[in-house]
Amino acid sequence: MKNKALELDRDRKKSLIDGLIAYIDDEWDQEIGLLKAELLLDFLTDHMGKELYNRGVEDSRQFLMKRMEDTELDMDQLKI
């Protein structure tokens, strides 16, 4: 999985682009077109996607480690 680019399926990418267009229009009172929104999304996924993905992996690892610790404690309590 190393160095794999973040890929979005066509429907998800369109939804995110539409969201960017709406956000920029609502929050910044700026209208941007489809091409600019797509370029912005590509920039964000290229520059932030791996960091956000890795954060999710680390958060999942921490969660699972805690669950394993809890399970180990539960198993110890079952001993006679």
Structural class: mainly alpha
- What is the molecular shape? elongated
Strand portion, in percent? under 5%
| Overall average pLDDT | 92
SS element count, helices = 2
N-to-C CA distance: 44 Å
Q: Largest beta sheet, briefly?
A: none
Spans of at least 5 consecutive residues with low confidence? none
Number of strands: 0
Percent of residues in helices: over 70%
Q: How many structural units, i.e. domains?
A: 1
Gyration radius, in Å: 20 Å
What's the helix-strand series? HH
Labels describing this entry:
elongated, single chain, mainly alpha, 80 residues
Any overview of this molecule?
Helix content is 80%, strand content 0%. The chain is mainly α and 80 residues long. The N and C termini lie far apart (44 Å). The mean pLDDT is 92.
